[in-house]
Amino acid sequence: MESPRTHGPIHRRTACSAALAALVCAMLPAGPYRSEAQAAEGASGTPGAGGRNGADDRDSLPARLALVYSLSRNGLEIARVIESFERDGNAYRITSEARAVGVAALLARGQGWRRESRGTLGAAGLRPDQFTDQRGTNPLLRARFDWVANRIRFDRPGTDPAEGDGEPLAPGTTDRLSFPYALALRAGRAPGLPATEWEAPMTDGRRVSRYRFTVSGREPLTTPAGSFDTIRVTRVREKDDNATDVWLAAGRGMIPVRILVAEPDGAAFDQVLVQIGGQ
């Protein structure tokens, strides 16, 4: 998974805006925008232990979630990420919005990052139909998933909007925003997450990359949102890869509590849950 980077000559404002597009797997936040106080209303659920990788009958995604994360770089907070998950029948919608804070807010000058993923939830798990990524004033990136033709198409500047650039669509492919929720859904269902390594194809709106993950074990984790019994999922690294870890809250719908991305150069991007809301 990639952490925030820029490509080629770029204005400082745009560079800062692109940096906010942090993490992974990244995830998060909401449109229409909700205040953090609103996002925290209605929090429910009780941490629990259980069978398959710690999953129990409370480990299924709720109909609605509003999550607030703090995003930091090497210990310095650079953004708040507001994330919304909603499902209606077998349809889901996830929106994520990052807003710079502190020194980063001065550089970003109001620019931010917004992502959205829409698709379905079913026996095959989470399946995106469309993913969009808007970073500041940069061109909108869009990936369209055609599960009938098994093709994924990318809308990029200079491509035919009706067709886009395409490539084969592998089973289980997700996008950066929906990946943690696909992981949560899989962890909360029998038989749970695999006991061995597994591959996770994922798109950032430009291309599809393939990652491998493994379950590292159970860990207690305390954040401003509370104390959690978590399952830690770790990326299996190749040479020069970023190190990526995701912590899922057992007994709380397997919601992602923390995502940590460490780059080979030593930069660390840490996304930590600070508030939970939903019903």
What do you see in this structure?
This protein has a 15-stranded mixed β-sheet. The model is unreliable at about 1-60 (pLDDT under 50). The two termini are about 30 Å apart. The chain is mainly β and about 280 residues long. The longest helix has 9 residues, at about 180-185. It is built from four helices and 15 strands. The chain is about 10% helix and about 45% strand.
Structure summary:
The protein is mostly beta strands and 279 residues long.
| Residues in β-strands, percent | over 45%
Element string (H = helix, E = strand): HHEEEHEEEEEEHEEEEEE
End-to-end distance: 31 Å
**Main sheet specs:** 15 strands, mixed
- Order of strands side by side in the largest beta sheet? 8-7-6-5-4-3-2-1-15-14-13-12-11-10-9
Task: Report the uncertain regions.
Answer: 1-59
Oligomer: single chain
Mean pLDDT: 77
> Quick one: how many beta strands?
15
What overall geometry do the principal axes of the alpha carbons give?
Answer: globular
Portion in helices? 10-25%
What would you call the structural class?
Answer: mainly beta
If helices are DSSP runs of H or I spanning 4 or more residues, what is the number of helices? Answer: 4
CA radius of gyration is: 18 Å
Helix-strand layout with pairing:
Blueprint: H1 12-19, H2 36-40, E1 64-73, E2 76-88, E3 91-100, H3 102-108, E4 113-122, E5 125-135, E6 141-146, E7 151-155, E8 165-168, E9 174-175, H4 179-187, E10 198-203, E11 208-223, E12 226-235, E13 243-249, E14 256-262, E15 268-278
Parallel strand pairs: 9-10
Antiparallel strand pairs: 1-2, 1-15, 2-3, 3-4, 4-5, 5-6, 6-7, 7-8, 10-11, 11-12, 12-13, 13-14, 14-15
